[in-house]
Design brief:
376 residues; 61% helix; single chain; mainly alpha; Hypothetical protein af1432
Length: 376
Amino acid sequence: MKKPTNSAAPHGLQTIADREQSLLAQYAMHSTNSLGRKHPEDEHPYRGPFQRDRDRIVHTAAYRRLSGKMQVFTGDMGDYHRTRLTHTYEVASIARTIARALRLNEDLVEALALFHDIGHPPFGHAGEDALNECLADEGGFSHNWHALVIAEDLETPYFEFPGLNLTHEVLEGQRKRIDKADGERRLLEVQLVDAADSITYNAHDTDDAVKLELVSLDELATNSLVKSCMDRVKLRFGTLDDEMLRKAVVHELIDCQVSDLLDHCGAGLSEHSESQSDPDISGFVIRLGQEMAEQAKELGSFLYERVYRHEKLIEVRKEAQRRLHIMFSGYVDRPQLLPQKHIERIDSVGIARAVVEYLAGMTDRYCDEQYHGHFT
């Protein structure tokens, strides 16, 4: 791998190394410490390596397709709720806020956040479960694994090398999402994105569920975290109509969790010497304080039981899984229906995995179109 050297910027502009030296803590991942890329490239004159990763991710077809993939709720339920793409935006926004406050590398955090869900198949986790079943005899399927396949094999925007040629840090951060072994050292920026992901979906799934009338705010207020947020909102603003109350509670859900994480982690990181130059601070974990973590876990359990397993969603998921199983078998039997680039993948990964890679890249709408076009 070729490591970035951060040579002089053009026209006397500040170099990436100088900028990071003035803004980032010593425990952050600095660009000059990157292990570089698998395929050597010349350094860009005014974009750091993680900025380039971010741009490469944003310009992929796989990233654009996230706009057509459900997060939790199906498009048949309206157009208010989050898609996989808007969820990704929200994670990136919250993650950057936290990174800036903790003086971590915002560029790396943004790249990791924009990349973290790029491997999701159509129809959310129901689609992932179906594809995992299709590959049960061949190692299974996970969206975290598929993100790496996209980055290293399926997206081919460059003539010089296969894949996106992302930095070691972004690829390794994604790999460690696959296997979060206890005691394994992970960059603080990688940990931060995982924490921001949890904060984000707890808040926006609460918002979407109430807006879609799957549960009421009063029902959610049986959860201690939602109740405390609602109490603070009412104390601050008095009586609000249902619409404004929902919005204010969701804002408070995000703010109180981010603030708690910063209070907890800021104090812990400040105990480390500024001479600490290793970005992998042994033993330190980016997380909420214990009380807030327990409340967030309680909210997650409520959402799982009352929202994610709601009968309206279960019906959609079962039908989506049925269709994906039919499509998998159909494409395996008739691989000539696959696009040429997926046919070419058969020799290297086998017919079953090549089919699953194709299915995983589909949007919800395109998946429905292909099902009705070929298998009904």
